[in-house]
Amino acid sequence: MQKPTIALVLGDPAGIGPELVAKLLAQEEQRQKANVLIIADKDELHKGMNIAQQQFSYDEITEADLPSYSYKTGVPALISYKCSNQQPFEYGKATKQSGMYILETLKKAVEYAQAGYAQSICFAPLNKQAMHLGGLQYRDELHWFAEQTDFHGFVCELNVVDDIWASRVTSHIPFKDIVSNLSVQGVVDCICLLNQSLIRAGVTHPKIAVQALNPHGGEGGVFGNEEITIIKPAIEQARQKYGIELYGPFPSDTTMHEVKRLNINGVVSMYHDQFSTALKLLGFERGVTVQGGIPIPIATANHGTAYDLHGKNVAVPTAFEAAFNIAVRMGNGVLESE
User: Fold this and answer.
1) Torsion sign, CA atoms 8, 9, 10, 11
2) Is the Cβ–Cβ distance between 237 and 183 less than 8 Å?
3) DSSP string covering 149-217, please?
4) How far is CA 91 from the centre of its chain?
5) How far, in Å, CA of 4 to CA of 101, rounded?
6) How far is it, in rounded angstroms, from Cα 230 to Cα 336?
7) What's the domain of life for this entry (predicted)?
8) Count of C-beta atoms within a 10 Å radius of residue 234
9) How many Å apart are CA 112 and CA 133, to the nearest integer?
10) How far is it, in rounded angstroms, from Cα 193 to Cα 154?
């Protein structure tokens, strides 16, 4: 059976990324799941191994080797990449140097995936402040990925804990602007994105719940009418036009109960924290973020760089392992669709 190739990057070397990569790839079971193409500064990768006190073997290759390279089972390949800004990394803080490195290695991962050398991307935690210092012109990496892949459709971060996925119609905006940014088409787009992402991850017939916006689901318009004018029409349109199995809209405080009762695979919420709070309580240490809508499957751990933990060998790899496993699942989905 053909294995997907995962392009793996260190994230921010000033944080716990290299340590997490070392702890992941030191596990033979994880290395066996996919071909792994590491795009990293070799010195920083080895520093991560030294911090983690765990080693793994790899083949060092060049970009020119990619068209004809054959992976050995359980042996990652490394393309050693030096940042164009040849300055020493400052550890434990956000800097221009690490921000440039993050953007340049992620750009390489996207290029290799677009060229067919990888089916998905998994990156260790990064820092938005460092990325902005390093030249990021977008508010987050999601919209940067959209620009890199020339994608102009609907995008949103997907949060995943275990087998429950969540998307949101609005995301990084002030709370006061949520209602003005809701529309029937926006809810439909979000439903379709989540449905497609679940299918790509191997869920053959997703069951999706949609959240209401107002307390008690609006109580028939008494507490707000967005359920009547936007959310319910969007659910009906997605059912009729795309055949998606949908439930709701459910009030925020009962959604998780319905998810468990109905064995729901995914939840569409109206704003950033609406369902993700419950999801993080379910398993913060296993949380994954997927860059929803981007043509290339891209996953990462749902936590930050933890600058204060750099070099201490205390970083817990469970969320990063979960992100890698989702990248493998979605990479398999790409292979199956080819």
Assistant:
1) negative
2) no
3) TT--S--EEEEEETTEEEEESS-SS-GGGTGGG--HHHHHHHHHHHHHHHHHTT-SS-EEEEE-SSGGG
4) 24
5) 25
6) 36
7) Bacteria
8) 25
9) 25
10) 8
Rg (CA), the chain: 20
Q: By the 8 A CB rule, do 298 and 120 touch?
A: yes
91 exposed, middle or buried (CB, 10 Å; 0-12, 13-18, 19+)?
middle
User: What is the pTM for the complete model shown?
Assistant: 0.93
Q: What is the pLDDT along the chain (338 residues), one digit of tens a residue?
A: 689 999 999 999 999 999 999 999 999 999 999 999 999 999 999 999 999 999 999 999 999 999 999 999 999 999 999 998 888 999 999 999 999 999 999 999 999 999 999 999 999 999 999 999 999 998 889 999 999 999 999 999 999 999 999 999 998 889 999 999 999 999 999 999 999 999 999 999 999 999 999 999 989 999 999 999 999 999 999 999 999 999 999 999 999 999 999 999 999 999 999 999 999 899 888 999 999 999 999 999 999 999 999 999 999 999 999 999 999 999 999 998 87
DSSP state of 104: H
Length of the chain (residues): 338
Residue 222: CB atoms within 10 A of its CB come to: 10
* Distance, CA of 201 to CA of 166 (rounded, Å): 13
Q: How far apart are CA 21 and CA 105, in angstroms?
A: 15
- Quickly count: other Cβ atoms within 10 Å of residue 273's Cβ: 12
Residue 86, both tokens? 């040849």
C-alpha–C-alpha distance, residues 219 and 65, integer Å: 62
Please give the helix or strand (H or E) that residue 42 lies within, else none: helix 42-52
And the tokens for 277? 């709070």
Q: What is the DSSP letter of 23?
A: H
Tokens of 173: 């905006």
Strand-pair category, 298-301 with 288-292: antiparallel
